[in-house]
Amino acid sequence: MNANIYSVIACSFPRSAAVPALIDREGATYTYEDLARETARLAHLLASLGLKPGDRVAAQVEKSPQALFLYLAAMRAGMVYLPLNTAYQEHEVDYFLKDAEPALVVCRPQAKAWIEPLAQRAGTRHVLTLNEQGGGTLMEAAAGQPGHFETAEVKEDDLACIIYTSGTTGRSKGAMLSHGNLASNGLTLRDYWCFSESDVLIHALPLFHVHGLFVAVHCALLAGACMRFHRRFDPKAVLEDFSRATVLMGVPTFYTRLLNEPELTREACRGMRLFVSGSAPLLAETHRAFAERTGHAILERYGMSEAGMITSNPYDGERRPGTVGFPLPGVNVRVADEQDRPLPAGQIGGVQVKGPNVFLGYWRMPDKTREEFTADGFFRTGDVGVFSHDGYLSIVGRAKDLVITGGYNVYPKEVELAIDEIPGVLESAVIGVPHPDFGEAVTAVVVRTREGAGLTEEAIIRHLKGRLAGYKVPKRVYFVEGLPRNAMGKVQKNVLRERFSRSD
User: What is the pTM of this model?
Assistant: First the structure.
């Protein structure tokens, strides 16, 4: 059988191709027949541009049905898809294009003027545009292409996507996901969360993120279900859709914002069967408040770019607040010490994972890939966790001081490097402090030079907004005379977190 993720999805299409696959909040409905035809046209276009299987297709575009079709078409044609966060700024995109060397870049029309020179320097042959309404040169060029396409034959280990993760040293790493990785994880989640043709998923997540592009989309399409497509999360609009849907996937911020809506009631949720949360820790308080208001226990799960979904609270059974549940079927998870020796329940250590969901490695970083795997083949996630005696995993901390804000990962080193370049900055430390909406707020603590005594919070934030994605820019900047250090000279970020978590 063809291991192409598109082929696997196509095997799950509903018996009638006239069944809706996607209903756009903008008013359009796309059936499974439409999905097959539009992805075929785009796949033909990719081939007509001279792209070969294995060539990279980079996309930095707003969410739209056509953006989803582009991803599926790239899979269908055997290309490698490279989704880029729409918040990435010019110097960030420059790095990704030079590193991945895509043959095609698809961007927003308004960004073409600055992306095209970057693409040319990276050796990219084609730059096309796609706007939020599904227009642009990409769809214009695809319009005349045939509506049937023979899906490319691939093996399970063939590369499907590269997902860039922030680097702790400031250099982003491209996690290589295979067709087998995507299919195994999608099919497991479909079955574990009991998706069927009768489901309607509210899709309000972005399409450049593992959660929205793989978890949500694959669960729905592998079940022949329907998605109600929201371009962005609006709690009132999502609440309106509860009467027409059965499942919502979101980040914790979705649920905190929904709890602020008076219309969130048991009656409003009567037709819903499942609420899933991930991409950042869900506060136990949010879990309990949502259950009291709606009668539904949010199902929290745990995953990452390098391994898709790793654990999940049970569909049937106790969804325990503050935990991320059990290892998914076929996925081996352990908590280990610094020598990679498994630890018993109740002992805290590094979370490690092994299974068909785990990525191939980091793009063009063989040494880094070897570094992150144990001698017996487990991937070191960098998270710190503990198993309860009855098998629930809790994530109790994160190695490398990762900050998760609104479901997005921010590695402090990348932000610190950008701050330290600013004239007047001697050194900086970036931390996450609790935030009621985003989970954590990116916060910078800065030591100024004598010449930089007049440097302000506003000036630093303004400088960073032109260089970093918006979610990486600190919400607050505090100035100190010096950073606290331990005997080894390492900045004590725990001291900073404790101090500035209490600040206004």
Answer: 0.87
